[in-house]
Amino acid sequence: MITIYDWFGYELPIKERYQLIKKVGFDGVLLWWSEGFGRNYYRDAPQIVREAGLFIENIHTPVQNQNHLWLDNLDGESLTDCYLQCVADCAEFEIPTMVVHLPSEDNPYNTLGLNRIKRIAEKAEQLGINVAFENLRNLANLAYVLKQVDSLRIGFCYDCGHHYHYYPDDDLLSMYGSRLMALHLHDIGGSYSQHQLPFDGPINWAAAMKKIAEKNYSGATAIEAMNWDYKHLSAEKFLQEAFERAKRLEALRLYNP
To answer: What is the crossing angle of helices 111-127 and 139-148, to 10°?
Structure first.
């Protein structure tokens, strides 16, 4: 299975966006799940996605206030409530997994934040939803949460681009691959130093996909590239290129000796 983050760039009518994703060959999408960045239609997206013949692999929860999770104030409680609502939304819309950003390294973990995550884990267990914490510049917080919260519903979203951008010398898949629940695959470099199409930057994709395969991950090969450095391409051409790169990654993952 091959999927792509639904908001890869370009101003497109929402139905056309998903129809194009399906047309070029993708099986499914990763959905942005908030009104942030002007996406006030997000709760309508699941039906439109499925009408286009695609499946929904996961949702990405809001990121604008991610550092609030450890705060002992109303902002911290509000963000916790947001994540709890996302768990409920996944159950309502029959979406198996949600991806969450933990606070950055400048915002060290604490007991209050851990207890909030345990509340999220409890609701996820009740409703049968996976909560995958993504690696960014947050390795100490990620390590702490995955060590302290022993739940089959709490796991790891491996972002290959963030890995090689922030912590290239750490073997994140050896550390946390046993709890892998989702992938975000993109290359580093370009205007924003990340979110390029795979094979356009320095990542050794044969090695990366072999490592993922060794963890017996059975989910989709998921692309999280943006059009930032590809605006000379039409939306359809960009998607075609992304799909071809994804097929190469899928082959490396499934047939890498």
So the answer is: 60
Domain that residue 142 falls in: 2-255
| Count of all residues that appear for the chain in the document | 257
Q: Are 238 and 26 in contact (CB under 8 A)?
A: no
Residue located via tokens 């934040």: 113
Using an 8 Å Cβ cutoff, are 166 and 193 in contact? no
Give every strand in the sheet of 130-134, ordered side by side. 180-184, 154-159, 130-134, 97-101, 55-60, 28-32, 2-5, 221-223
Q: How far is CA 164 from CA 122, 192, 221, 229, in A?
A: 32, 14, 18, 19
Total structural domains within the chain: 1
pLDDT tens string 44-87: 999 999 999 999 999 999 998 999 999 999 999 999 999 999 99
Q: What is the pLDDT of residues 82-102, one digit of tens each?
A: 999 999 999 999 999 999 999
Q: Which helix (H) or strand (E) holds 150?
A: none
Average pLDDT over residues 166-184: 95
First CA to last CA across the chain, in angstroms? 20
The CATH number given to whatever domain includes residue 190 is 3.20.20.150
Letter string b/e over residues 85-101, b meaning 16 or more CB atoms within 10 A of that residue's CB: ebbebbbebebbbbbbb
Strand segments (E) across the chain:
2-5, 28-32, 55-60, 97-101, 130-134, 154-159, 180-184, 221-223
